[in-house]
Amino acid sequence: MTSPRWKHEVFAAVVLLLVGVLLARPTWAQDEQDDPYRDAKPAEEVYFDLDLYQRMQDLDARFSRDDPDSLSDFVMSGRGAEFWGIPDEWQWQWLPDGLIYSPPMAGPKESRFSLNVIYEQDDGWLYDANLGATTGLVRYGSWGTQNPVGFQMDLEGSAQMRIDLPESLDVRSADYRVGVPLTFGRGRWRTRVGYYHISSHLADEFLLKNPTFSRLNYVRDVVHIGHTIYLTSCWRIYADAGWAFRSDVAKEWEFQFGTEYLGGDPWLFVGGVPFWALNGQLREELDFGGGVTAQAGWAWTAPNGRRLRVGLHYFNGHSNQWSFFRQHEQQLGVGLWLDR
Asked: Which helix (H) or strand (E) holds 205?
């Protein structure tokens, strides 16, 4: 007699249930010693936090718990300095004394305070006055004014005037310059990159007395880069290149190079140290001609980095008053320079 069909189906269901129990042991049957998740912590809630400042504060606090230095301390501390290659003593400084890249002493268009009394062979006695300065805005680097190193942003500006002595001290012309150099120095190397604007203007007195003179709208907006190598602590060589992305009358390229010496230890009794400087400048609008400037004399440097120089001045080449840039001049005189 054949077994009913439902008996076969019940028997198959029981067999499958037993197989399932054997293959999938319940968690209560596992040995606690074999449970890899026995000590696991409950999962934390994951969320997206738009408060970036608070998240950074939490990260800094977590870092502080794991280590005595906070995250920001790590970046500025000895371990961070080693990681980034930054010396421990470098710090942020606002309005620092001294310059990392000192403008060339004989550079005719650098921003400084100076007064030259010169005799020009074809023009007689003149004053060349430069009313301006180059000063530091912010530095990340070493303290002090004696050969500081690091990164620094400077601000420069000046009015570079020519005054006619025989003509009742009339102002003949003025070149106006303003710029923002970014400088870096380490060891005996110094680099500056930046931007400056310069424009040349004739004075009203000159135009009234010379109504037929053709006025030039000489303008340059320049990006430039320069590099200095100190061969000794007192003697350096340098070279600059500038490219004008906007100009009128002037053309794009200009170059400046030279060498200078500023003595080390002050001399007894008189104080100060001797100096000499030689500078060459080439400009594209002059078919890469230009001028040569030489200066020599005595210098005194204050603790805040300011430097007073007095001495002899010589220039030969195309006029450094750029409203007359095509005229050739030979100047001999004396000068006083206040710079850094």
From this structure: helix 204-209
Amino acid (1-letter code) at residue 303: P
Reported as type and span, the H/E element at residue 10 is helix 5-23
- Inter-CA distances, 22 with 16, 29, 36, 60, 277, Å: 10, 11, 21, 52, 97
Residue whose tokens read 């500025």: 76
Give the three-class secondary structure for 126: strand
Domains and CATH numbers, the chain: 49-88 (no CATH), 91-339 (2.40.230.10)
pTM as predicted: 0.73
The tens digit of pLDDT for each residue in 254-299 reads 999 999 999 888 887 778 999 999 999 999 999 999 999 999 999 9
CB 139 within 8 A of CB 96: yes
Q: What is the DSSP letter of 46?
A: P
**Over the stretch 31-77, which tens digit does the pLDDT of each residue have?**
444 444 455 444 444 444 455 556 556 655 555 455 544 444 444 44
**Whether 203 contacts 163, CB under 8 Å:** no
How would you label 173-188 residue by residue, b for 16+ Cβ within 10 Å and e otherwise?
A: bbbebbbebbbbbeee
Tokens for 31? 């040995």
Which secondary structure element, helix H or strand E, spans residue 73, and what is its range? helix 71-76
- Residue 153 near residue 98, CB atoms below 8 Å: no
Share of the chain above pLDDT 70, in %: 74
The DSSP call for residue 48 is -
Pairing of strands 219-230, 189-202: antiparallel
| Confidence (pLDDT) at 122 | 87
Residue 70: DSSP 8-state: -
Q: What pLDDT score was predicted for residue 130?
A: 96
Closest by CA position to 325, among listed 292, 295, 297, 290: 290
